[in-house]
Structures are given as structure tokens and as C-alpha cells.
Amino acid sequence: MIAPAYTQFLEWVERRAAGEPLAYLVGEAEFRGRVFQVSPDVLIPRPETEVLIELALKKLHGVAAPRILDLGTGSGIVAISLALECPTAQITAVDLSFEAISVARNNAGRLGATVDFRQSDWFENLAGETFDLIVSNPPYVANGDPHLELNGLPFEPQMALTDGADGLNCIRRIVAGAAAHLTPAGWLLFEHGYDQGEASRNLLTTAAFKAAFTHPDLAGIDRVSGAYL
Length: 229
Ligand code: GLN
Description:
Structural class: alpha/beta
Strand order of the largest sheet: 5-4-3-6-7-9-8
Largest sheet: 7 strands, mixed
Bound molecules: glutamine
């Protein structure tokens, strides 16, 4: 008789050999020292997203009980990390995908984080609500970018990776909508592609944000831009 674990192992080897990321085989991935459950409905956590967390924590320094919004939360890594590392914060996190929201809620429960998860197309279901900080890791890979065919990306939700256009569409929507949802001097911080720093700063400045900056990830690549109102 063949042991079930061995059968499972052989199945994983086959799927891995076909390019499926390990995180989807085992159903979990690590981010910032915590284990998050993932399914093919959500992007697999990337270490470069830690830059977004670090910058957010810096901007929150000195704000007593900050209200934070995470747009396009996916598995919830950004919202949950901030909830656990800034315990006084009140965090709302949205995603277009109901499936992603369910993965994120489960992760928050397992990790003991309190986050108000809601389904929303960016700011659509947030009318009248304001925040001290808005963060996002939106889809920013351009349609047809050869990168989408590599490194297991075909197995990930395309709606979490690409805007189906030039890669800046979602960033444009986030920048355009943020002003109505930020408190005075509130910060907007978002992750973007290696070549989108300048375009991101231009979008922010044109939308009347101040002190637009771009920060590199640990590999020295432009990764997060931000500005305040
Ligand atoms: N950094 C990811 C990649 O290039 C893309 C993540 C995203 O679109 N938000 O694989």
C-alpha cells in the first residue's frame, strides 16, 4: 500500500515541476516572520512589500490612534502586519475579490489581528470615511509584460498583478481618490514597479500631494512612493 503522505508528495512534485509556486502547494507563506495562509485567489507575499510596512510605521510615529486603510489587501499581509505592529491603530482593509477577503479574514483570526475587512472596488464602498494613512500594494505590472509568464506568476490571480493596461491605471485611481479619504496631513503610500517611481511622484504632485518621494526595496530597486496632503 502507498502511504497517503507519499501520494501527496508525488502530486506536489508534479505540480511544482509544472511551475506552480510552493506557497500554493502547501497553502502558506511567510511574511515578516509570520505565517499567512494563501490560496490561488491571492498573491503570494513578496519580501519587497516589507518596505511598505516599514515606511507606514515611520509615518505613523507619534500619531496616537491612527486610522489606516489598506487598498487591495489580498491575503491581508499589509493590514495584519500593521495591526499587530501598531496595536493602537484602527485598520480597514478592502479588496475587490470576496475570495481574497475570506482568506484575509481567516489570516487575521489565526494571527490574532483586528482588522475591518470589506469588499470594495478601491474607494467605492468607503464614502465619507477618512484615514490618517492609506497604504496599497496594487496591481502594477503592465499588460503583456513578459514577467507575467515567469516565476510562477501565471498561477497567481492576474487581477492582483496587472491592471490590464500600462501598469499605472490602479495607481492613478488610488491617487485620484485618496484626497477625499485622507485627514489633513495624512499620508498615501503605495508599492509599484521598478520603473514607476518617477511617474508615481508626478501623479502625486499633480494631485496636489506634498513631499512626494520614492523609496527603494532591499535590492535597491524603486519600490514604494508616497506623499502627504
Ligand atoms: N512585485 C510583484 C511581481 O513583480 C507584483 C506585485 C503587484 O503587482 N502588486 O511579481
